[in-house]
Amino acid sequence: MTQSLLEKEEQDAPESGTAAPTGVGPTLRSMREARRISVNEVSQRLKFSVRQIEALEAEDWSRLPTGVPLRGFVRNYARYMEADVESVLVLLDNQVGPTAARSIMAAPGIAPSVSRDAEIPTSPEGAHRPWGWLLIILALLIIAGFYAIDRGWVPESWLVFDWLRDIANND
User: Which stretches are transmembrane (predicted)?
Assistant: First the structure.
């Protein structure tokens, strides 16, 4: 993938002896300039400061975040430039080291439960269970109410049904 991006840029480069950009920053800058987009426009579109975009294009890694935030920044910039995002990310990893998120590690001897490509479900498996809990709580409240009536803890003026009064006066 990296080769295809570099080969494409070499083909697009004029024959005047200027070399094609080799790093992430110069590659993105040349794409931006080819599309005649200003740094301010990129800044407004990506919601990053002009300083951060200039630092990326100059490959001043000390002025940029590291790890996954840098990867997301470069991914968004490459996507906006309509570049091959995976190729640009490979270039980034070759320049600054691995920036991808680390995989979930399991305890020794136990296989990880989530694979890298596994999709996280959007709804919980037990979505029907809250109704069960609601019914259990409702049954407990009814039992507690009848117990309170039987013990005489409820004023007789609250008992609107005759059969409830019979339960309360059953002593």
Answer: 131-149
Task: Name residue 145's amino acid.
Answer: G
CB atoms within 10 A of CB 1: 13
